[in-house]
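Progress report, Aim 2. The chain analyzed during this reporting quarter is listed below.
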Amino acid sequence: MRKVTSRRQALADGMTIAQIRHRLDKHSWQQVFRATYVTHTGQVTWLERVEAAVLARGAGAVVSLRCALHLWDLTSDQPAIITLAEHFDTHRTSTFTGVKTRRRRRLTVARRHGLPLTTLPQTIIDVIALRPNDIDGAMALITRAVSSRKVTVAELRAELVHHPRHPARDVLTEALMAAEDGLGSAAEARYVRDVETAHGLPRMCRQDPIGGADGRALGRTMDFRDRARALGVEIDGALWHREKQLADRRRDREAVGEGGVVLRAGWVEVVSDPCRLAADVAAAQQARGWTGSPRPCGHTCAIALDSRWARSG
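Predicted structure tokens for the chain:
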């Protein structure tokens, strides 16, 4: 028997109205929404609530926004409010507590966990529209989705074409460029924009494979590497995880074994003090043979105030 069912499904399975009422009266079934039930006595799970909402809303309803994002395994959050979508031509007046439904002119549908939901490209584009000024959030979501190989930059760009008035179109364009550039996190994207590009530093290779002593790839990558000067930059986004620490240290040792040096920076440095970080990276590049000079991004930039670069200003 289904764990979640509707009155219509139960009747189609051969039950009678009296049998349904009997199970509800005995509490062996629980009503979730009008004419939708879970067929057990335990706690109703989030996924069961979502399935019940889809059944209660009726044919054509699909899971959307952050609820769909959870079903796509791109967030651990299980939103308290269930968000559904249905085609613009659908006209229903029923409402359910804890459920919000939007009508959409464009609705692309997939299935996961046995439920209809918006396709991942549309889900991502729609979720970013909820907070159009959240650049970091958009970058984090897109780089996470692309690096997980659940969606491609081309698929996201193709979906964006159908949203000419998207409130975060500029943010999306920037985030897609970062993902296409091979960046694996929002911190890496911010490093490229606010540290490397903003200060005119030599462009480093992105996600550069680390080679062994025999020249073969080891299956690991350096976030950024200046091959000409054997200098790497690693952006640490999860230093509190032991596995990540061990992997980072191994990469550092491998880089040293190749005659290289690795600089490390965290989210705080990248976001809160990118100018100081740029000055430090530039100094390391000059020490290893770069003949250029970094460019201040403004009058208060750390590079403009740093005595190491006074002669180049």
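The first helix runs from residue 7 to 12. Residues 238-243 have pLDDT under 50 and may be disordered. These observations will guide the mutagenesis work planned for the next reporting period.
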